[in-house]
Please model this.
Amino acid sequence: MLYPHTELRLASVETGMGVFALHAIPKGTITWVQDQLDHKLSVEEVAKLPQELLGVLSHDYYRLFGGEYLLTHDNTRFMNHSCNPSCAHLFDDVEIAIRDIAEGEELTSDYASFTLETYEEFECFCAAQGCRNWIRRDDPSSLKAYWQPMLEEAMRQLDQVDQPLRFLFAQSSLHAKA
Ligand SMILES: [Zn+2]
Model:
């Protein structure tokens, strides 16, 4: 489930729709938790899909580190990539704001923090400062040292900020925090 006080807006003509904050969201706020209504495809189910559906998978589904794909039931799938994102995956099933997000600002994440297949690599036009221009499946290994301190700092705020998604913590990787 996506952080509730957000809405879909046109991010840009090139990018299409995006998810925007209806009020300020402080660093450390959990912005998404996987829930029972999300739809997961196993590795075996994905292997049986016709080639034509693989593009749909990479567009609408998140690929989890176990190789499964996840279709979220809400606007989470409209979250756009940024090379300087406002949110990041803590675990497969949890995303957190890694900096303060202003009212009206777009919620973004770095798609390289999912496990991309080679066919899912893409040229990036996010225009963020430090844009890598090309998003590759091996980015996580080169970016881990850059991401880790931001994640750890955001996690230290977990208990300092409102958590509207706290009711989902117990069934997620955050179970110790519930
Ligand atoms: Zn970029």
